[in-house]
Amino acid sequence: MPHELEHLEAACQDEELTETLRRVSAEVMETMFFSEAVPVDCEHDWLAGAASVRVDFDGSHSGQMWLALSREAIPAIAGAFLGLDPDEAAAEQRSQVILELGNILCGAILSSLWPESQLQLDPPALTAWECTSEGVWHVCLALEEGLLAISIRLSGVKQTC
């Protein structure tokens, strides 16, 4: 295994980085979406029916962030973000809020993990959950309204001089 990949594999096991993922995700959910997010043990049966977002990033670190939000949480999260009652947000508005949630979380997490890095985020995309547990930092969080899963997979760390 090349040295760079060994480094990535070792980094993916780092509990401090996973704790940062939990902390930053909880802060974003509380401040931007008015929802408490509490770490829970991962049980992923719900992911197949979840709304999922993928955000690719590149720069000093490259990879993807995956986010899944349980269907029952979507109305409350969209309503809170838009300042509406949960049932007032239209389907298109809900989709846009889920994409924005992915964008906000990815930017906040990556900025916290690597504050000196130069990263570019691709636009978030709604997609089916395809992120396996191999080689990722992952957390599951319970919201009052449902569940949230976040995974980050690195595909490379570019060397800078």
Structure commentary:
The chain is an alpha+beta fold and 161 residues long. It has a single domain, classed as CheC-like (Chemotaxis protein chec, 3-Layer(aba) Sandwich). Helix content is 37%, strand content 29%. It is built from four helices and seven strands. Strands 1, 2, 3, 4, 5, 6 and 7 form a seven-stranded antiparallel sheet that branches. Strand 2 (51-59) and strand 3 form a beta hairpin. It is globular and about 40 Å long. It starts with a helix and ends with a strand.
Percent of residues in helices: 25-40%
Assign an overall shape. globular
- Our count of domains comes out at 1
Distance linking N and C termini: 23 Å
Entry keywords:
alpha+beta, Chemotaxis protein chec, 7-stranded antiparallel sheet, 4 helices
List strands and helices in order, with pairings:
Blueprint: H1 3-11, H2 15-33, E1 37-40, E2 51-59, E3 61-69, H3 74-82, H4 91-113, E4 119-121, E5 125-127, E6 136-143, E7 147-157
Antiparallel strand pairs: 1-6, 2-3, 2-4, 2-5, 3-7, 6-7
Helix pairs in contact: 2-4, 3-4
Could you provide a short overview of the structure?
Helices cover 37% and strands 29% of the residues. It is α+β, with helices and mostly antiparallel strands. Helix 2 crosses helix 4.
